[in-house]
Design a protein that fits this description.
Receptor-associated Protein
């Protein structure tokens, strides 16, 4: 009951703060939209300003890669609210202010990593969808070139016929070409935005064919077969290592499940782990060993080719 009360109090603090932050960002966006265009403000050269700029650039890149509809300001507001609620839960979980602050900082760091983990998961999901569609897109481009279309016309066909995210990426390439960017540069920008070995091979093949000549349709047919074979091998590896991945997550989450179950059955018994310094040390050591085991299992089952 004490834990539920702390969570309720933390939620009561988090919701108004999150609403205020979102309203503040809305007002700032409205003022920026109505403000007249003028000279750019000077960018500070301090280390904190450079760190903040790199953080924003990384966040924007991750949101674009994940195809997220969250504006960067709102995502940062949610990150701040999550850090606050984790810190409050940590402070309320222990009668000692120092121990509670340490626990709150650890929980806040876990919440911050959780938000970035969500973005990483969305990026991987979008990358998997892109790779599933890429082999079909290469085949479509090869057939279009065989029928007499140019490379740009084949790209337009992919942008119209294929679903997201491949159509969005192809439309971005075409938009860059229309405003005067050379097609080789536009393709290089595409390969730098999307982390894919298959895409790099595709861009390299197009660039070499444009500089040295050769039958593009045959090159794309060979590339499409290579991409499909790589996807087949990737699927076989994922199937073979599925049991190892499941075992890793079961071994990692099982101690947490037992901790929560015992806390619900006997809060006073498990509560000593959070109230006594030795209990906190034991929890920290156990968490470290658990994460170390998860790391080594994932390293064993991860196969690069």
């Amino acid at each position: 009951m004490e834990l539920l009360t702390n969570l309720a109090l933390a939620a009561a603090i988090f919701v108004p703060v999150a609403v205020v932050i979102l309203i503040a960002f809305r007002r700032v966006e409205a003022k920026e939209a109505l403000a007249p265009v003028g000279p750019a403000l000077p960018v500070p050269n301090g280390k904190s300003a450079q760190f903040w700029q790199r953080y924003q650039e990384r966040l924007v890149t991750s949101l674009n890669s994940a195809d997220s509809r969250f504006p960067p300001q709102r995502f940062m507001a949610l990150q701040g609210g999550l850090l606050l609620i984790m810190l409050v839960v940590g402070l309320m979980s222990n009668p000692s202010p120092i121990v509670g602050f340490v626990v709150g900082c650890l929980l806040a760091f876990a919440g911050w990593k959780l938000s970035w983990g969500y973005l990483a998961w969305e990026e991987k999901r979008q990358a998997a969808k892109f790779l599933d569609q890429f082999a079909e897109s290469v085949g479509l481009i090869a057939n279009a070139v065989k029928s007499g279309l140019s490379v740009l016309q084949a790209f337009e066909l992919v942008a119209k016929e294929m679903p997201k995210p491949i159509c969005t990426e192809m439309a971005t390439v075409l938009q860059g070409v229309r405003i005067g960017i050379p097609i080789d540069v536009a393709l290089e920008d595409w390969s730098s935005r999307v982390e894919s070995d298959d895409l790099r091979m595709f861009v390299t093949a197009i660039s070499l064919q444009r500089s040295t000549g050769g039958p593009l349709s045959e090159i794309l047919d060979t590339l499409g077969e290579t991409v499909r074979e790589r996807r087949r091998i990737t699927g076989q590896i994922a199937t073979s290592t599925a049991q190892g991945r499941a075992s890793a997550w079961v071994l990692c989450l099982l101690p947490l499940f037992f901790l929560i179950a015992l806390y619900c059955l006997n809060p006073g018994y498990i509560g000593m782990f959070f109230k006594h310094p030795l209990g906190l040390v034991m929890l920290a050591i156990g968490t470290g060993l658990d994460l170390t085991g998860l790391f080594f299992i994932r390293r064993i089952i991860s196969i690069d080719f």
